[in-house]
Amino acid sequence: MSDENLKPSGSKEKNESDDPPDNPPDQDECDQGVCYIKEAEEKDDSKTFITDILDKATNIEESAPSRVNFDENLLSKLGLVESKDLENINTDEDASKLKAYIPKGYIDSAIMVLDPDIIPEKQESTSVEDESISLSMLSSIVPSEILEKMSEIFAEEKQDTALKYGPLIGAIDEGTSSTRFLVFASKTAEVLTYHQVPIPSIVPQEGWFEQDPILILHAVKETIKVTCDNLDKLNIDAGEIAAIGITNQRETTILWDRETGLPLYNAIVWMDTRTNTTVDEILKYGLRSQYFLQQACGLPVSTYFSALKIKWLMDNVPAVKTAVDEERCLFGTVDTWIIWNLTGGINGGVHITDVTNASRTMLMNIETLKWDQKLCDVFGIPMNILPEIRSSSEIYACLFMEGILDGVPISGILGDQQAALVGEMCFKNAQAKCTYGTGCFILYNTGQRRVISSHGLLTTVAYQFGPKTQPIYALEGSVAIAGISIKWLRDNLEILKDAAESTELAQSAGTEGEVVFVPAFSGLYAPYWRQDARSVICGLTEETKPGHLVKAALEAVCFQVRDVLEAMTLDCSMPLNKLLVDGGMTVNDYLMQMQSDYTGIPVVRPTLTETTSFGAAIAAGIAEGIAVWELDKILPVPCDTFQPQISEDLRNIKFSKWKMGIERSLGWIKTGGVVNEINLPRMVEWDENKSEERIVAAAPAGLFLIGAAAIIVLSEYFRRSIR
Ligand SMILES: Nc1ncnc2c1ncn2[C@@H]1O[C@H](COP(=O)(O)OP(=O)(O)O)[C@@H](O)[C@H]1O
Ligand SMILES: O=P(O)(O)OC[C@H](O)CO
């Protein structure tokens, strides 16, 4: 089914009363599962109404049974009954009036209080845990026939969910710092409700960054359950969810036992640097460049990617080695782990991933979109542990789980940065977006062309909408540290109470001071790819205050984005004329303005905040067999735009200071691998018929000195030589 009116929720005027909130509710509120219910209450003034009822009810004995305590005065004051005579209550009319004020969840629970036998097994799961509401009081004020009538009306309306919202699409969004489940209305693409659960990280030693796969799974299940409960409270039929999309932190690696279903080790998260030595080991033979596999998989050898993490696990965790030897081991990125478990686990769960996630492992051939035997051999990884690679949009399997979503098809998978590209609707060549979360990731759509970067960018699959369609590629600039540096200032240095305070503190620093903070906690990613780098803070004086550090941390995000944009211009010969942005950090207007100032181009932020999840929902909703959406019917989202406000000179002076900071961060730790002093890759030609790679172009050390013009010419040559 297509829908002419399809538009994301942000496309409405901001602050319209019927909009979902622009900013996600507090984490605490979400954890209580009441966030959108609270919205509904405020919207309908029902809180005041219920408070009135409760005020009145305090005079009523709590243990008293329902009808006898029916408070005629209160109801007549509210115009709900005309007569004091109970016999004359117009049940239908009064129930309709009252229904406008009291959310369905309260009615269900109140009915249960009246008659606990109605649905005893559901009593616990549907009870409304709002501290201020005493349901027994509500039941003792409102006559049971009215409550029952209201329940009937709600049930009828619920049947109209599809009419009102169109089919619903669910999106599981498993990010580095939290997991969410959101439900989109296909008619308007608005988020109807969601629930979010933070995911704690485990740091067993410096540079190690793990998460518990079981906890991730529990969090996913909890978000699904609470979101469905929320839908019920909003009187929306969760049974109308037609399909589920999934988007996830990429590269994070999980190995588990196919027989027990248990993880063999914690998830090794993408930013973990324990594989420094594994990188060295891979590079040491034949003095290989970091880029020796770039032609085959689009990526430099780095601690970032899954293959290194799998190798480390096989080399260092005996349980993994045994499971591999006994062919019981399964590998997955987070999408794979979740889908395997949600579709049956040891009882027939499907073991799959999509092209976007597979393109982050270093094991998939970027051209054939298949696992590559030679790449697997480089890392010594057996192919039988790898999931099947599927497109980003097709029906893969159905959920096999308790609850109303049992049997709902999963029909979309996208790595989270690719999902944001889709959610920003960058479907055309040369459209790009930047997502600011834990890290910061800029993806530039290169269409069906695989551009192999000569300037430290990654070649990655952007999406493939269906098994029979052509894949679309992107160039990516991955920056490891963005929002997490703000978290570090908060948790480790304790100079911030919360992330939002960063604006005020940074502003307090004014324009004075020249503190530069290079946050290379995990080495430097794009465009430098220097695992020997570590963080530095330069330019401190006795006048330096916390505000200067916070400002420098925000500036670092902007400068890293500029580094990547410059590399993209060199690779694509076409500078971006605006930057589309999204992600958790973009709520910070100060940061967005600074980003525009430091890049010299407008920064455009959509009013739809849930871009990544929306991308996953799109992939699921357009899949063959689901087809609740059509790509070309999706309307553009209205945006806020930040225009550059500083001079070119000032911008460049600041950037040159940043570059000095970068220089000082390099070589901080010793690595055994080959460091590309100039970050210009040695290009190799991947020969399918030979086991060894052949160098077709190598940049001599110091080439940077010959000037930018020569580099552009050279990069053009490289590109032509590999196309
Ligand atoms: N107002 C703010 N200013 C700066 N950073 C912020 C602000 N609000 C949130 N952040 C940062 O954004 C990150 C969370 O963004 P999110 O997109 O949810 O991350 P992820 O997808 O990586 O889980 C956190 O690292 C947090 O420090
Ligand atoms: O969870 P995020 O938003 O920080 O994204 C993580 C990336 O997918 C890592 O490549």
UniProtKB/TrEMBL annotation:
<keyword id="KW-0319">Glycerol metabolism</keyword>
<dbReference type="GO" id="GO:0004370">
    <property type="term" value="F:glycerol kinase activity"/>
</dbReference>
<feature type="compositionally biased region" description="Acidic residues">
    <location>
        <begin position="18"/>
        <end position="31"/>
    </location>
</feature>
<dbReference type="InterPro" id="IPR018484">
    <property type="entry name" value="FGGY_N"/>
</dbReference>
<keyword id="KW-0812">Transmembrane</keyword>
<feature type="transmembrane region" description="Helical">
    <location>
        <begin position="695"/>
        <end position="718"/>
    </location>
</feature>
<dbReference type="Pfam" id="PF02782">
    <property type="entry name" value="FGGY_C"/>
</dbReference>
<feature type="compositionally biased region" description="Basic and acidic residues">
    <location>
        <begin position="1"/>
        <end position="17"/>
    </location>
</feature>
<dbReference type="GO" id="GO:0006071">
    <property type="term" value="P:glycerol metabolic process"/>
</dbReference>
<keyword id="KW-0067">ATP-binding</keyword>
<feature type="domain" description="Carbohydrate kinase FGGY N-terminal">
    <location>
        <begin position="169"/>
        <end position="423"/>
    </location>
</feature>
<dbReference type="InterPro" id="IPR018485">
    <property type="entry name" value="FGGY_C"/>
</dbReference>
<keyword id="KW-0547">Nucleotide-binding</keyword>
<keyword id="KW-0418">Kinase</keyword>
<comment type="similarity">
    <text>Belongs to the FGGY kinase family.</text>
</comment>
<dbReference type="InterPro" id="IPR043129">
    <property type="entry name" value="ATPase_NBD"/>
</dbReference>
<feature type="region of interest" description="Disordered">
    <location>
        <begin position="1"/>
        <end position="32"/>
    </location>
</feature>
<dbReference type="GO" id="GO:0005739">
    <property type="term" value="C:mitochondrion"/>
</dbReference>
<keyword id="KW-1133">Transmembrane helix</keyword>
<protein>
    <recommendedName>
        <fullName>Probable glycerol kinase</fullName>
        <ecNumber>2.7.1.30</ecNumber>
    </recommendedName>
</protein>
<keyword id="KW-0472">Membrane</keyword>
<feature type="domain" description="Carbohydrate kinase FGGY C-terminal">
    <location>
        <begin position="432"/>
        <end position="623"/>
    </location>
</feature>
<dbReference type="Pfam" id="PF00370">
    <property type="entry name" value="FGGY_N"/>
</dbReference>
<dbReference type="GO" id="GO:0005524">
    <property type="term" value="F:ATP binding"/>
</dbReference>
<dbReference type="InterPro" id="IPR042018">
    <property type="entry name" value="GK1-3_metazoan-type"/>
</dbReference>
<keyword id="KW-0808">Transferase</keyword>
<dbReference type="InterPro" id="IPR005999">
    <property type="entry name" value="Glycerol_kin"/>
</dbReference>
<dbReference type="GO" id="GO:0006072">
    <property type="term" value="P:glycerol-3-phosphate metabolic process"/>
</dbReference>
<comment type="pathway">
    <text>Polyol metabolism; glycerol degradation via glycerol kinase pathway; sn-glycerol 3-phosphate from glycerol: step 1/1.</text>
</comment>
<dbReference type="InterPro" id="IPR018483">
    <property type="entry name" value="Carb_kinase_FGGY_CS"/>
</dbReference>
